[in-house]
């Protein structure tokens, strides 16, 4: 039987102060309508919630991680390659984990019935992708750099270009959601979602790094974005609500 000092047991590491946004953040107006008003209630996980459904390779399509080849034609916009690693708090790879992305197209519009602003949909781009991490915790997507879009949170409000990520453990109850931004975006200063993160270092971990080595000549720029699920270098995670 394992003892409290058994090194095989995971060690609890509290999130560093300022890593995650507050549930109620006045500049992000919709948080006032949806943040919890009562103390949270712990719901213990049962066996069925931690053992299934399985998220194995049989559930992935051949082109699920290449959002530029899911239709007969090519999508509009700047083609990019997004790579990174999924890591635990000790820097060890998290293998065979499902990583999903969703994003706006190059014009800043989602393929969603609730997105009606006058930017055209792209018939060759759905904005959805998924893949499994390899034995080194690595993932890779080929996609289109998303555009900025208006979202009516405040006067002349525009969201910086970003890609939503979700990562899973062995079941749907083990899901974490974050956003990846791009370097040197001029909209950072006026975006309350980005600026709701109190700690500046944690905020910077949401910004991808341009990767010249992975850039493919005459084909695609590349950006690197690692996701750390716990510890001092933990990524910023959020609820699963949309921000449109």
UniProtKB/TrEMBL annotation:
Pfam families for the chain: Dioxygenase_C, PCDO_beta_N
Keywords from the named record: Dioxygenase, Oxidoreductase
PROSITE patterns according to UniProt: INTRADIOL_DIOXYGENAS (PS00083)
Any GO MF annotation of the entry: ferric iron binding
Family: Belongs to the intradiol ring-cleavage dioxygenase family.
Domain of life: Bacteria
Biased composition (Basic and acidic residues): 1-18
Coiled coil regions, renumbered to chain: none
Residue span, Intradiol ring-cleavage dioxygenases domain: 82-110
Gene3D superfamilies membership: Aromatic compound dioxygenase (2.60.130.10)
Annotated protein name in UniProt: Protocatechuate 3,4-dioxygenase beta subunit
GO terms for biological process, alphabetical: 3,4-dihydroxybenzoate catabolic process
Stretches for region Disordered: 1-26
